Amino acid sequence: MKIKQYWYSLAALFLMLSACTESVKTDLSQTAFIPKPVSVTASGSAFELNGATVVYVQEGVDGLLSSAEFLSNKINNFTGSAVTTETVSAAPAKGIYISVASGMPAQAYELNIDKKLVKITGADAAGCFFGIQTLLQTLPVKSNTGEPLVIPTGTITDHPDFGYRGAMLDVARHFFSVEEVKQFIDFLALYKMNVLHLHLSDDQGWRIEIKSWPKLAEIGGSLEVGGGTGGFYTQEQYSGLVQYAADRQIMIVPEIDMPGHTNAALASYAELNCNGKATELYTGTRVGFSTLCTDKEVTYQFIDDVVRELAALTPGPYIHIGGDESHSTPLEDYIPFVNRVQEIVVKYGKKVIGWDEIANATPVEGATVQFWADVENTTMGVEKGAQVLMSPAARAYLDMQYDSTTHLGLHWAGYIEVDNGYNWDPASLVPGIGKDKILGVEAPLWSETVTNIDEVEYMVFPRLPGYAEIGWTAPDQRNWDEYKARLGKHGNRFEDLGIDYYKSALVPWE
Ligand code: IFG
Question: For residue 251, which of 160, 208, 188 has the smallest C-alpha distance?
Fold first, then answer.
């Protein structure tokens, strides 16, 4: 008798719970999505998410299973339930179904949320992942265990304005552990960014193992700004970061900065110096004092070995060759040097990205100049057929202080409060450089003054979601007054993630 009563009461409870979500009224359009989607249409009902929910994934599509498992894990961490993932050949009647379909722009997705079935349909695996991020933003921040989780029903269609939406982490001035880089990747994934540019070498540190030149990491990676212990990524660790990023639809762009910003390499191998003498390791923050010896053949053998090994470890299409602030390299030497380095990158099947100074050379087919400070360089680059990656220091440098009181960062390019970081349009910032010339947007975080992930969080949040939206949402759909209200609703998400963010007074934090 007891058992039967138990099951009857459980069934009654379940019916009551499902009944109660049956009558729940919702409004999907009130969700504070960042980036703002192209279109959101609410249908006013509720999809109940609970331990019985199954995440189904279309079979035979690369990258979909890892995204589905990403979603299941997030739901389980959230609800304490045991949502499972199943591969299927057709859409189920209920649950969450992830699949791809043709006829949508790259990285696009459609989210159809009904009472029994949530369909995430992507143009590709990336689109599906971005649809998952949007779905996760419909969930409340805290899971009040025991209550059913209600997702508002409706339809969202969405696609990004720019294909390349990224951030850069300078791991050379200060070294960041694999775990810290993974946390940085998690930040990018939250807001549909899809590129992590790793600044792997500079005067103060060489951070990637190169097997044919082992002292680069052993000696060049030993210190960091301030003289503390530095570090480097073994090739196995780098490959682990590439995979961790790829599972979140994020591409790694590795940078070897040259011919300037090379003291760590010059201190590791005497032969790379014109005078044949190794330099001292450097732990200050000056720039522009170093240069590879551009008229020695061993320099190009060195670069060939480095690019060969790095290209083999990097599935993404780009190798970044740096090229900035080469104040110790005469222009007549810099130009042929950059041209030879570009040829090496092309030889190993990759496309060139370089800071805007490389426009003084002859950008190869498919090259991109990264605009950071010099409009003339950037315009010259476009005139020579290059594309532009927009990283204007005065708007997008995450190491710029918010204001004069910020305890971290620099201000040589000015102060960047949250509104100043958001209120600009990449396609109209530089006259003559329209959307058709722009590969995308990237927010660099230089680490002269930033030493650990807590300090990274303070400089990156709350500005990062704004750069993600600038890369994703068309400019005529964006304005600061409307955006700041949405951003204000993400403060509790940052707190829930333990992110130590700058609580700007310009944002109405909820
Ligand atoms: N400029 C240098 C960086 C870094 C930065 C700090 C570029 C391309 C200033 N080069 O930005 O190495 O020192 O804000």
Answer: 188
